[in-house]
Write a structure and sequence with these properties.
The complex is a heterodimer of chains A (105) and B (235).
Chain A (H helix, E strand, L loop, with lengths): L9 H24 L6 H26 L1 H16 L3 H17 L3
Helix pairs in contact in A: 3-4
Chain B lengths: L9 H11 L3 H17 L4 H10 L3 H10 L6 H14 L2 H13 L4 H7 L5 H12 L6 H24 L14 H13 L3 H20 L4 H20 L1
Chain lengths: 105, 235
């Protein structure tokens, strides 16, 4: 048997497919962990996970975006060390990257 | 009152909204950029709004605009769903990392609030939970507010179209990376605890060089978690 051609419903079906895929990603980790007992190993692995996700997301991005992005991120981290404010860190980081890009970096 | 370990309060809801408000300018520009890209690719206003409302994942939606086409076969639809899943696979790990917080709540509530789970409220939730907070309202408030902003400004971007030329010039592409990187500071628990992060970063760098796409996030993060799980055994 063959499915009827998506036709004019194509875009809507494509969006629904994306929505389903994304929602499954949102719940999959939570569902999975509800079946895995929290042994000390699993607990330590989970504790290391947030920082690992951040490092694994940000480092390759910096590598792609270049030196100006690296400087902006370091400035934001520095601001966060001095003042624990996400807003200030964001303002500092954005100002640095906008400034560096305006200068042609 | 019955279950003091698993509250969802209005106060938490507002706290979450306040915490996420610093990100609104960045999300506004990102949403406008997506709306404009969608209009340029021939999506109707309804389709653009529907995608923002149901998918609610900025990077995956921009990637979808690269792959968008005028005619759709079933194969292309499935292909786009698979690409979307790989771009958003980081959510699997983000959800796993917060599961101990979600566990006391009902399945129905978790199934509902996870629809609004995204990078921004993961970062906010992780910090809040790490500081001892347990009110799920914080996560829901943050996710819901950004969801509404995301939809509204997708629409505006679609209507404005080509007015937004280059969001990169304002550093908008760095909003999330900066927010992520700043998170390292409150997460810091000394050098020993940072060893898995270094491993995650290096593995992700190498993976990004070897494999196209977004697999590097999940491969790197899992390597870090594995090192974290077993590092102390050797000592």
């Amino acid at each position: 048997m063959t499915l009827p051609d998506p036709g004019t419903w194509g875009p809507i079906l494509a969006i629904l497919g994306m929505a389903l895929a994304t929602y499954l990603c949102r719940i999959a980790g939570v569902v999975m962990m509800s079946f895995i007992p929290l042994t000390p190993h699993v607990r330590r692995g989970l504790a290391a996970l947030p920082g690992s996700i951040i490092a694994a997301t940000v480092l390759p991005l910096i590598e792609r975006l270049g030196l100006a992005a690296a400087i902006a991120l370091l400035a934001a981290i520095g601001s966060m060390v001095l003042r624990r404010s996400e807003l200030l860190a964001l303002v500092v980081g954005m100002s640095v990257i906008a400034g560096l890009r305006a200068l042609g970096f | 009152m019955d279950k003091p370990s698993s509250p969802v309060t209005g106060a938490g809801f507002w706290l979450g909204m306040r915490k996420v408000s610093v990100l609104i300018p960045g999300v506004v520009v990102f949403a406008v950029a997506f709306g404009a890209a969608a209009s340029a690719k021939g999506l109707s206003l309804f389709e653009a709004l529907l995608m923002s409302a149901l998918v609610y994942g900025g990077i995956s939606q921009l990637v979808a605009m690269e792959l968008w086409r005028p005619e759709w076969s079933w194969g292309a639809i499935v292909g786009l769903a698979v690409v979307t899943a790989t771009v958003n696979s980081r959510m699997i790990l983000q959800g796993a990392s917060l599961q101990p917080w979600f566990a006391p709540y009902s399945k129905r509530l978790n199934a509902w609030h996870l629809f609004f789970f995204t990078d921004a409220n993961w970062v906010i939730g992780t910090r809040y939970h790490g500081e001892g907070g347990r009110d799920l309202g914080v996560l829901v408030g943050a996710g819901l507010l950004l969801w509404i902003v995301w939809i509204l400004f997708t629409g505006l971007g679609h209507l404005l179209g080509a007015l937004v030329s280059d969001p990169r010039a304002y550093g908008i592409d760095l909003v999330m990376p900066i927010f992520f990187a700043a998170m390292i500071v409150p997460l810091w628990r000394g050098r020993r605890a940072a060893v898995p992060w270094v491993v995650a970063g290096i593995v992700a760098l190498v993976t990004a060089k070897l494999i196209d796409g977004y697999a590097f996030i999940i491969v790197g993060s899992l390597s870090g978690a594995l090192v974290g799980a077993f590092a102390d055994d050797a000592a």
